Amino acid sequence: MRIRCWGSRGSFPVSGAEFVRYGGDTSCVEVESGKGDVVVLDAGTGIRAFGSSFASAHEKVIHIVFTHAHLDHVIGFPYFQPIFDERSTLHIYGCPCAADSLETAIRKLMRNPYFPVDFSALPAEITFHEVSADPFTVGSLTFTPARLNHPNGGCGYRIEEKGKSFVFMTDNELEYGKEGCDAEYFEAFCKGADLLIHDGEYTDEEYKSYESWGHSKYSDAVRLAIAAKVKRLGLYHINARRSDDEMDAIVEDAKKIAGKGGTGVECFGVGAGFEVVL
Prior knowledge:
Order of helices and strands: EEEHEHEHEEEEEHEHHEHEE
Strand order of the largest sheet: 6-5-4-3-2-1-14
Number of strands: 14
Number of helices: 7
Number of domains: 1
CATH superfamily: Ribonuclease Z/Hydroxyacylglutathione hydrolase-like
Helix content: 10-25%
């Protein structure tokens, strides 16, 4: 399983000299199975670059798995080149949104007055699949959904192939837990993962102003990784106003927290271009 990040910012895309190393695009992570199945997690602005790099897209089926339908996770979809290619086949997966199905939310995004091309006019073959609590497969990859603790809901995913596991949990608030979405629940879901990419948007001080907004302190993400005994933790959903240098400082502190007691959890910040093979 190969994992590559195309966008890791939260809320809105940014640009400028202070956002170069981690990139400025919003949520988009590519997962490629050992057999070549291509899955994209979320369609934030990072999916534009993925679409441009995906040579001969019409020769492969593309799967897009959404965590939820907030704008920073869907806004890149109308600009994803393969949807305008009649030779493309897309399968789109997502849990129900607060008021609509994912399909309805995407269709609303591409209609007058928000976008000049209506969804119904897209030439690509597009099929929607509603995600329930049950695991599902994409080629040789097995996806197990988990509820996210986030306004309007959402899904995190544990992705497994040949004994390797990757857990993707963006937009998840660990401290302000809802019923059924507590520390014990998330620890069990992440247990022993080879890689956990988790929301780590806030510092402890920042969190005081944003409690219940649906995002985690990076220190809580580290504590989850330690409790779940994951091997690697990638801090994700980087605050859009946070500079590269500020993110580096957060990563260094995360490493210190993980290093206490010799936990062995490797911590890093997830930036555009990050790539790993499990």
